[in-house]
Amino acid sequence: MPLHDVGYRPWTGRLRPGGAAGVIATTGIRLTWKSRWLRRVLFFAWSPAVMFAAGFFAFEQALDEGVITAGRTAIGRLDGLQMIGSLVAESLGGRLDDPAEARRTVWSRLLLAFMRAPQAMLLAVVVGLVAPRLIADDLRAKAWLFYFTRPLSRFQYILGKFGVLAVIVSLVTLLPALALWLVGVLVSPSISVALATWDLPLRIAGAAVAVTLPTALLALAYSSLTAETRIATFAWFATWVACWIAHGALSAADATAQANPQASLTAADNAAEQAARPRPRPRPRRFSWLARAAGIDGSADRWAWLSLFHAQGVVQAWIFGIERRLAAVLPSLAMLTAVTFGSLGLLFLRVDAPARA
């Protein structure tokens, strides 16, 4: 009668490159998608794209009708749609003589405003719903006993968890922005517009990467520090709120100091200086919130590096070619790089810490 070896045997198969990380990512996405709140937030995250798509359509209609030409717009003789298009052009690019240059300028700034204002805020909510559970639940359930008894490296584990957040983040930032660019191409008078703006999808992808890397890795790092999901969630939102408050307080202090640059002088000296100073010509600015989000404000935000939201906005403006001052970009870029590599290093130390204990 033959005897069979029922003990442990060495595995002689071959691992597929990225196979383990892909399994972790697909399983995490499938489990995450069961959340009703997440599906509702993702549906709501696409709603601002409708308003920005209307801005694309109105601008293209005004441009096609010759409204934005010759450096002036006849607001009084326009219908409602053309008036909105001319206001969008004036808010984002000024009154440009070259329609092709006007299109490129307005498209870039509309896309930047879309990714910078509504989507970045919704991104913080979406990541706060998904990320805290990804590693904290494994720690609480001792799932690392199952993971790391397999031929799975720390890098593959982190890559799989990062893949879950990368897909979710792309549904909030990358895909809606690419859809807006496609809408702009479809409502343009010629398909040649796609060739003239071929680099905008690449810039959109670069801006999405600039948001995804520090955001996802920082959220995963918080999740790896505790087995309690609520603690990781609190740490995530507390970081955003505290950094926002610090940025706002220091920016307000700078604004106050600039408003009173010579407070030590007497009132008579201040009055004489203000009388001698030429008065700036008022320039009407419609849709000012849109202009601020699009990076048209010429003042450099020297405290942007303190806030994850504002630092990402500065780097995104640089990727879109709107912010060209390296002195304004480098602090924010350095902060995001430090957050990315610091979070990655912390993840490598923490994800298999129970197995090494």
Brief overview:
By secondary structure, the protein is mostly helical. The protein is 70% helix and 0% strand.
Mind sketching the topology for me?
Elements lengths: L18 H14 L3 H10 L1 H18 L15 H13 L6 H18 L1 H23 L3 H4 L6 H19 L1 H13 L5 H5 L2 H26 L4 H31 L7 H10 L11 H6 L14 H12 L6 H25 L2 H4 L1
Helix pairs in contact: 1-8, 2-6, 3-4, 3-5, 3-9, 5-6, 5-9, 5-11, 6-8, 6-11, 6-12, 8-11, 9-11, 11-12, 11-15, 11-16, 15-16
Account of the 3D structure:
70% of the residues lie in helices and 0% in strands. With 357 residues, the chain is mainly alpha-helical. The protein has a domain at 19-45 and 99-254 and 301-356. Helix 15 (308-319) crosses helix 16. The longest helix is centred in the last third of the chain and has 31 residues, at 229-259. The relative contact order is 0.12.
Q: Top keywords for this entry?
A:
mainly alpha; 70% helix; 357 residues; 0% strand
> What proportion of the residues form beta strands (DSSP E)?
under 5%
Overall average residue pLDDT: 77
The string of secondary-structure elements, in order, is HHHHHHHHHHHHHHHHH
Percentage of residues assigned to helices: over 70%
Most strands sheet? none
